[in-house]
Structures are given as C-alpha cells and as structure tokens.
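Late entry, evening session. Most of the bench is empty. Finally got around to the prediction I had been postponing all week. Sequence below, unchanged from the version circulated by S.P.
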Amino acid sequence: EFTGNRIFSLLAFAIIALNPIHVMYSAFSMSDVPHALMVMGSLYCAIKNRWVLAGVFVAAGGLMRPESWLFIVLLPLLQFILHRRISIAAVLISLSAPVIWIYISWLASGNALEYFDVRSSYIQELLSRDPNLGSLSLRHVFANLQTLLYSTGHAVLAACTLALLLLLRRRSKRTTLRAFESYTSLPAILAYFFALLSFLLAAYFTGHQPAIFARYCLVLFALGLPVVAWLFVQTGDWKPARARALCAALVVLCLWQWTVQLRDGAAFVNLIQQKRIVADYLRGHLIVSSDRRV
C-alpha cells in the first residue's frame, strides 16, 4: 500500500525475511527482534490513523526496551503534524509503559530507578574489561559507525536520506503534508527511522552506550527497507539515466550487505557448532562420578 507496487513490496518482505542477521538474532533469547515488531506495529497503526492502537504497541515496546519511550513524545507530535489533533488515550496508554516499568522496579528492589543503576553498573563493567570502549577516538568512532552501517544497511540509510530530501522538497511546494496522498505514509516512516537513529547516536556519543552493537540497528533496517522499495517505484518518474544509476547502486549495496552478513552468519554458526561439539564431548567423557563432574 505504501509503495503502490505489489512486486517491490514482496521483494522488500523477502529481503528482511532472508536477512542473515535478522534470522540469526530471531533465534536468540533477546528482546531486539520482538521490540522491532512492536515498533513496526506502532508505525503501521499510525499510518492507518489508528492512534490508540499505535499507543498500545508503543507501550508494549516500552515494556521491552526503554528506547521505545521516545515514541511517547514522537507519536502525539506526529499525529499533531499530520492531523492537527492529539489522541489523549494514545498518550496515556503510551505513558503506562515507563510507569509500570518504574513500579515493578520499586516493587522488586525498593528502588524505582533500579534499572538505571543496574545499567550503569553494566556499562562500568564493560569499560573495566575494555577501557577502549569508552574512547571516542577516530578509530573507535569509525568502527562503531561501520557496525551501524553493517546492520542498518548502506542502501537503507541512503534511501531514507534521499527520501527525506525529496519529502522536504515537495513539502516546500505544498501547504500541508496531507495535500499529496502518495506521501502520507512517508513522514511517519522517516520520523520513526530518524528518531531511533538519532537516539542511538546520541546515546553513543554522550557515553550512555559504550558501543553500537549490530543488534541495536535491526529495527532501523526493518523501518527503512520499505523506503528502499518506495524509492524504486518513484524512479519511474525520473530521467532514465538517473533512475538506472540509482537503482543499480541500491541493488549492488543490498547484495553486498546480504553477502557479507551471510558470510559472517555462517562463520558464527560454525563457531557455535564447534563449541557444541566440545561441550558434548565433555559431557559424555569427563564424568568422574554420578554426582561430580569436571
């Protein structure tokens, strides 16, 4: 519906369904992929103008990971920009996530801010193991930005940046964002994408996140991929030479990302398999007695 082209939409779905990093982290007992699902659900409901349900997804995501708390502000702001109104029910539902989070922390530990204390200790432990994580040297910054691009995707970041420029260009020729139907979904998608990207970069450069891990950017890849498909459709109105150049560049970047991630995923699975072989050997051969193991 957003792209207006079923083939490109199905291709985008296939890309994310077969993305090696997404497949690998989907098998882990981590909150990153379920959280990405909640974020995508909230975005879908916002696009469909179902703001209360979008607030429910924001609350669900906020109970998984605190970075979803930024949507407590973004969601009503986006609704006001697009429709000049705010759903109070959606705001209250979204606010329930940090309230419940803080209440559970207080109930379990007697400290309402226990999570933040534990996270601070976690960061200090990471820095004690590797002091270089706290360094903002050019080499470390470049390495972390490479990780961001590796997981988010060069094509996705380039497409979202170009789409933002196109949106601003067309916005300057219109009185309201609602004046052009083909762009009604784009502001919401870009708002979600760049809000999370800005949050991640701000956390890293202010020292609240010592490193950018690949799993943190999975949600960015999921949010930005529809924009890549949309951009392919939009090139149909461009000059042929410019359209072919952009499409070829995006295809090459997508293939390069998939190939590199498949290689790294296979290497990781092979490493885990080796550890399982060793663990099985130890479990089967190093049993000294029925109640003692080495």
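Two things to note before I forget:
Residues 20 and 261 are 6 Å apart (CA to CA).
Residues 175-182 have pLDDT under 50 and may be disordered.
Will write this up properly tomorrow.
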